[in-house]
Write a structure and sequence with these properties.
two-stranded parallel sheet; 184 residues; 4 strands; 7 helices; two-stranded antiparallel ribbon; globular; mainly alpha
Length: 184
Amino acid sequence: MPTTFEQRNKIVSQTTLQRRQLDFKSWPEALAEIDRLHRAHYDRAGNWDLSQTLDHVGEGLRTALRGTDHRAAWIIRKFLGPLVLQRLLRQRRMKAGIKVPQWWLPGPSHDESAAVDQFRAEVSAFQEMTTAPFPHPFFGPLTKQQWNDLALIHAAHHLSFLIPRDSEVAGAYFRNNRVNCQRR
């Protein structure tokens, strides 16, 4: 018996999808995956949709470009932050479930097309930046290359929770569970 996409979303939300392994080395690679998610649609293995994910990751780019009044305690920025940053840049992975400050959490879901356009503009502005980036609120001062690598790792981390519907991961779940979806 065919199900609608709304019913499929409910089935998926009640199922544990495994997040993907992503590792972006460049912005064109990351932006291509964002376009794929937007075009093919996706299922969520986490809490945020594409608009919220781009808002959250974009906050890092906005912070590099404009700075922020929010900062961790100086002892964290001076001692703990650099150690964590070294590990992140070396492993190119972030752990899931790390609590972030309220101000860095995304707002409610909104127009995904507008979110994709805004994120593209933020990436472009970051790439065109000719001055030193503002300090990171947790890691302290970073070079532009460190900010770039960190932002790509951050984007890969959060986009890994969105499973494109044209992917083997999403397709295998529905094939194995004999779920047939039709558009309404």
